[in-house]
Amino acid sequence: MLIASAFLKQLHQGQWRHPSILLVYGEEPLYIRRVTDALRQTFKAQGFLQRDRYDVDAQFDWQGLQMETQTGSLFADQRLIELAMPTGNPGTPGSQFVLNWCKQPPQDCVLVIYCERLESRQVKAKWAQAIESAGLVVQAKPLAQPELVRWCQQEARVQQLQLDTEAAALLAERVEGNMLAAEQELMKLSLRYPAGQVISAQDIAEQVVDQAHYQLFALSSLVLMGEAKQALHVLHRLQQEGTEAPIVLWLLTKELRTLVELAQASNLNLAMKEQRIWSAKQAEYRQALSRHPLKIWHRLLIDAYQIDRQIKGLQLGDPWLGLADLLVSIAR
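User: That's the sequence. What structure does it adopt?
Assistant: Structure tokens below.
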């Protein structure tokens, strides 16, 4: 298993030999996006001119995909197959498909499976273990605070800026660990300051206003408490102020994953402690859990994935309308 940052370094060195199957999973959407983009560029450069992407749900036709990949053509291009499986639950047919692929991969095909957060039991499942043995597993995990500070400094250099340690620490604090938000703020700073500018903590304090982030936290509380009308008002304000849709989606997806974990827990108090939900916030989660059963939280997580596809241009639709619908579905 490789963490995403180390894997990206390998790809950029240009000497990476691809396996026949890869699993990319994790909680950090920025790394997922960068790994996805880098893999597509790498495979295209290596002659994989055909790319097919499938969304995996409970009704996914694994047998059809098995038959399709087994039927090759002498004159066919090398083919990249992407499976988006946000829940990390392939079911029995999907598990068998992966096991078969690992034992005897189709010629001129590479399979990449993308998941969101996987629990330890899912990582230890036979299909995931088979991928690790026969191919490669890449984990996109969030950065701890000291690592995030260093990352902010590195990203600033990419934007032709310099952040001193104090400024980087303040930026990391303002974005609350959200790497997508940090990337957005650094891009804004690069438009405001000339190349080579040294950004101080005072610059961060003046330019990186955390009002939007406070509004994000307010949005989280309103959604959990079922205040749909007020939550829609905050969502509209965030859109008007230029907040990126992926940041709002990150927040709602994070809450949905937490609700899934709590809904399937046998001991809610213990689960909240494990999820590090402080006492003042527990009432909000209890209120949300009283509105929907586990299967609804799972379905809403799939809806969040569809919005992600809209943001990336892989599916038709307005992501802000999708976010509004998702918000109302969680709250009502």
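The chain has three domains: 2-140, 145-209, 212-331.
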